[in-house]
User: Fold this.
Amino acid sequence: MSNDYKSDEEILGKAYDARLMKRLLGYIKPYKKYVVFAILLNIVVAALGPVRPYLSKVAVDEYIAKSDYHGLMMVSVLIFAALLLQSVIQYFLTYYTQYLGQKTIYDLRMQLFSHTQKLALKFFDKTPIGRLVTRVTNDVESLNQLFSSGIVMVFSDVFTILWILGFMFFMDVKLSLVTLAVLPILIYGTFLFRKKVRGTYRDVRLHLARLNSYMQEHITGMNVVQIFRKEATEEKKYARINADHRDANIRSIFYYAIFFPSVELISSIAIAMIIWYGGGEVVQSSLTIGVLFAFLQYTEMFFRPIRDLSEKYNIMQTAMASSERIFKLLDSDTFIANPENPVKFERTNGEIEFKDVWFAYTEDEYVLKNISFKIKPGETVAIVGHTGAGKTSIINILTRFYDIQKGSILVDGIDIRRLDKRDLRKHISVVLQDVFLFSGDIKSNISMSNDEIPLDKLRQAASTVGADKFINVLPDKYDEVVKERGATLSVGQKQLISFARALAYDPQILILDEATSSVDTETELLIQTAIEKLLVGRTAIVIAHRLSTIQSADKIIVMHKGEIRETGNHQELLAKRGIYFKLYQLQYKDQELKRTP
Ligand SMILES: Nc1ncnc2c1ncn2[C@@H]1O[C@H](COP(=O)(O)OP(=O)(O)O)[C@@H](O)[C@H]1O
Ligand SMILES: [Mg+2]
Assistant:
């Protein structure tokens, strides 16, 4: 795990950060009218609660005390009406705030996904997948809480408190001051609580992140764990991380368990003081029983939003930390730049030239040095060399997955940096050793969900590469569902699908990167025939570690430690008795051994 990962999860959000808030509010903007509507409803609903104690004061003092039965009826109806109205408004409020939350979250997720799709591969080299997934799920979810309840409900709590204070002071200033005497203790207690919870909150997040990434890594590498029988060891490690997480949670529960009863206690003290002081006043007839009655209810009402506010504080804090991380992802600008005025590139004849190309994945660690070669239209060029020689890197820079540091790469004589990436890639198909299949069916995996390619053409592509033989015996043929990354298909079958995929797009330039290295001999023969058909009329770069595949190439480039060491055709290179000759001998012996059981 990189340090970066840790520090990211450790972001200890302030509960309010004006810069982040401003940006977050930008997401609500399209739904401004819902927000205004919700806030208006809030002001009303916040008043309806505090109206009831006041009405009950009127009932006691004006009607019960004077035995006015009719008046009492009237007030009772009013109280009931206020309750009813409050429930109705509450319904709209809940509906619209959640509606607002869901809408903004949808937008944010779309933005995250589309941004992530545009990032250069370099970004993914450095960022663990688990972390990206967390951004799009957990972090977005905590913003949902902020949008749907946080922002609007804070208004509700504040308004409720204001209305209560208004009614209390309106009825009796001195008794109000007595009631509020406990407020400093409450404020101090809340402050203390928040400080403590803040620290534990960060611990919980941190341990959760560790728990998740550990789990993810081990599910991905399950077969390795099982074959090396490391279950018990891994379980022990997991137990420790799990225990840390549990303890952090228990610490935070402890503070909550102290805080809530404390608020109850403080509100009881306030009630006792009202009864003691207010009761005395009633006895001296300087206060009516109705006011005392109303104050007792207000005190109950007053402490709930204060307690809720500290809950809201948590939502805010979580949301701020999440938004910080989300914005960090949205602000990552590891892109492969497109030129402002790209050269039009509708057709290509498939001429490729590398001119003094130098390339490094990371600063100054050149994996390709001074590479120059030219491929004429329709030619097949093979690249050979040991693992790590830089063969795949050549493909990576030709397709502009990465940009080069020095030199230039030309297609049809045009520097590829002057082309729109999409135009360039339109003409190139790549078949890799590891075939990636998406969930869906066989058909959509060949067409890559491009509905413009008719089924006929897909079938034809499949039959040209010889994939139709196994597809036709599947129960649902081309509609057969592809399970998780094609787990039910063999490596060779997946390889054939990927050949069909390349052919269906009918590219002018075809690249095969060790496409046959993990299949059995029979499938290789099948693929060998397929490749011969594929190469006709196209420019092709074939990387293969089985030399048999490349003997017929027009030109062979031999790479060694990032440099081109030899070029020529099969016969010429053998005659040189250099690296290629040695590679060939090794292979030949290998094949001899295979033949004699
Ligand atoms: N994404 C990457 N980030 C950093 N270094 C890389 C990356 N991919 C490959 N390399 C390094 O570049 C060198 C060439 O790799 P590669 O082109 O994949 O070799 P080959 O395909 O010939 O086996 C290797 O030393 C490898 O470690
Ligand atoms: Mg490679």
